[in-house]
């Protein structure tokens, strides 16, 4: 092992050290991500530059994670192509391009995955027009509140409800006409 290391030369020894360091940090970051210990404020260096240019996206270009990803692509490319490309400048240029492409690919993957995320917050305006059933009797002519169960945004939810018409008994089919306030719906028999 020592003979192999001494035969590398200073440039390749430096590349191996950088690549092994980046690989170790990458493995640690990956484990922390899957275990749930990866925090936004952790090891990211936020320089307020992102790929979309608007400054408020979650995908920062200059982060510690992206730096490690660049070093991974850069270092392993040099190690992989050192025998095939004799010109050191071309080797470094190709490795830099591969490092940048790796950073872009990882950012694209995370951007795609973040679009699949759902907030779980119910938008009350989406309840208008939804159908459901009375859960607890609703008194006639806005004389009191009852409860309804409706399917909104792909989930069955329970809301307070009032009606303008006749009393709605438990189990009656209803349709949401209006959102009265943040937690009460105006419903009618369906």
Automatic annotation (TrEMBL):
Annotated transmembrane regions: 6-28, 67-85, 91-110
Keywords (A to Z) from UniProt: Membrane, Transmembrane, Transmembrane helix
Stored InterPro entries: NA-bd_OB-fold (IPR012340)
Protein name: NfeD family protein
């Amino acid at each position: 092992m020592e003979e192999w290391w001494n035969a590398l030369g200073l440039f390749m020894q430096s590349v191996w050290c950088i690549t092994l360091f980046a690989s170790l940090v990458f493995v640690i970051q990956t484990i922390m991500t899957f275990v749930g210990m990866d925090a936004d404020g952790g090891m990211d260096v936020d320089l307020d530059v992102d790929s979309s240019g608007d400054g408020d996206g979650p995908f920062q270009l200059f982060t510690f994670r992206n730096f490690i990803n660049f070093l991974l692509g850069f270092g392993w490319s040099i190690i992989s192509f050192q025998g095939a490309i004799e010109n050191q400048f071309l080797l470094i240029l190709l490795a830099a391009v591969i490092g940048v492409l790796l950073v872009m690919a990882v950012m694209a993957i995370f951007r795609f995955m973040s679009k699949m995320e759902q907030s779980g917050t119910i938008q009350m305006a989406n309840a208008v027009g939804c159908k459901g059933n009375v859960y607890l009797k609703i008194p006639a002519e806005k004389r009191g509140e009852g409860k309804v169960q409706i399917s909104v945004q792909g989930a069955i939810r329970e809301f307070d409800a009032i009606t303008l018409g006749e009393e709605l008994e438990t189990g009656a089919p209803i349709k949401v006409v209006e959102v009265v306030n943040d937690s009460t719906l105006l419903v009618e028999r369906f």
